[in-house]
Amino acid sequence: MTTQQLQDQIQAKKSFLCIGLDVDLNKIPEHLLQTEDPIFEFNKAIIDVTHDLCVSYKPNTAFYEAYGIKGWQSLEKTINYINEKYPEIFTIADAKRGDIGNTSSMYARAFFNDLDFDSVTVAPYMGKDSVEPFLAFEDKHTIMLALTSNEGAFDFQTQNVHGKELYKVVLETSKSWKNAHNLMYVVGATKAEYFTEIRKIVPDSFLLVPGVGAQGGSLAEVCKYGMSKNVGLLINSSRGIIYASNGTDFAEKAREEALKLQQEMEGILVSSFKFQV
Amino acid sequence: MTTQQLQDQIQAKKSFLCIGLDVDLNKIPEHLLQTEDPIFEFNKAIIDVTHDLCVSYKPNTAFYEAYGIKGWQSLEKTINYINEKYPEIFTIADAKRGDIGNTSSMYARAFFNDLDFDSVTVAPYMGKDSVEPFLAFEDKHTIMLALTSNEGAFDFQTQNVHGKELYKVVLETSKSWKNAHNLMYVVGATKAEYFTEIRKIVPDSFLLVPGVGAQGGSLAEVCKYGMSKNVGLLINSSRGIIYASNGTDFAEKAREEALKLQQEMEGILVSSFKFQV
Predict the structure, then answer these.
(1) Closest approach of chain B CAs to the CA of A97, in angstroms?
(2) Is A209 in contact with A233 (CB distance < 8 Å)?
(3) Do B68 and A127 lie within an 8 Å CB cutoff?
(4) Could you identify which of A87, A160, A188, B59 might form a hypothetical disulfide with A211, taking C-beta atoms 3.0 to 4.6 angstroms apart as the criterion?
(5) Which CA distances in Å does A185 have to A151, A232, B220?
(6) ipTM
(7) Catalytic residue flag (residue A96)
(8) Is pLDDT at B143 greater than 50 in this prediction?
(9) B74-83 pLDDT per residue, tens
(10) Are strands A17-21 and A233-237 parallel, antiparallel or unpaired?
(11) Does a structural domain hold residue A277?
(12) What's this protein's family per the entry (chains A, B) (predicted)?
């Protein structure tokens, strides 16, 4: 998917919501556990009731790997279902991979070719040659960790490197990498005040923003400081939507939560001078 | 597996060799491609002829994920085969994972419970709460990237943070984390001169050292600067051993290459005052 197609979808749906499909068998409705593939059944139900309210789904691979081969089957069925039924959706494999060049190429192949995700998240610690194999795929996107939403973000990411924080060095350095136009970045919503600085470095890049909702970030704050002239944000919510209820009404309640966020986003898009809806 | 058991194995085998099982279907002998599970058949043959020469096997998950569900089946069969037939072997899932706390817990569960690896490699960028869920497992080991063997290591890892390189900050900071005694570190062999400094920070920790062989690092140099009083090194070789031949003699040739490294290691252990063999 091209960036333009993602932007068109945002305009059409008046939403820049990404729904995180982090499915824990201990948290999903009990009646689904009787089905052959509870994780897929759960995802399918969530997707069917929310696809018009969001522009992206983001399964986190950890939640699938934890169930071994059965988990990978659920992941494969989920991505195939989205790609077949809702091809307009921007799909993110939240995998946070990164390794030496020939190994990163294998990961890129796993997520871009074998599973056919539109994008994958990667970690920056190993530098340029660990990320460029992902960037080599045209019309695929590589979403690199910059400033994450967890407490540990302050351990290294905000440490001062030659007068500026490490995450800024990461952002700046990555702009010189081959096919850097395929880069997006992860920036946590819990640190909204940082967006102003980040936008000075990457004014136009899409930012994937976790941390709204369960982790305490504010959508309005993020938009105020983080929006680009083309929106440039994908706001992720996982637990707040998919676990809104663990009864038989889970899908309905998930839609209600997704709708609240979509409506808030529509309001922001309409009131913003940056964007016509 | 406890650290003591790993040390005992090193003493018994006079080896601190780790063999990387990075299996690429384009590189293995053609006759194996006719079998039902070529990756597993290849691994099984390599393991059967080298298990007495090495103390550890390290499948890199990228090479399995690239083949989707079939790849995960090969990974599962490989780890099960090692655990059943050669339970003394220290197994490493080279996965370079790391995510927010509840997600890292799922990864830990995937590799420590579901697949029953003795250890997993992790990336440090997201800090303490992304690594501690792995450290919580007793008798399991978490091998964190410190200074990697690739070119990109110089992008961020060696950047100066408050007067010292980032990888040193990573090493120092991690020592204060809960269950830090379960930490080991990845340090690339291509930077042997760095080991002196690293041993000042983590004098006793095990270091997993990639980069000997294909990537150009010298075993003698690494041992000279990197050995602790209990050896404290796991030297990895992947391509140099497993792809020594791509004919029907691949296993035999792999053993020859592993034997060369084991003998060099035995020589170092015998000549070293640090260790009695």
Answers:
(1) 7
(2) yes
(3) no
(4) A188
(5) 18, 10, 41
(6) 0.96
(7) yes
(8) yes
(9) 999 999 999 9
(10) parallel
(11) no
(12) Belongs to the OMP decarboxylase family. Type 2 subfamily.
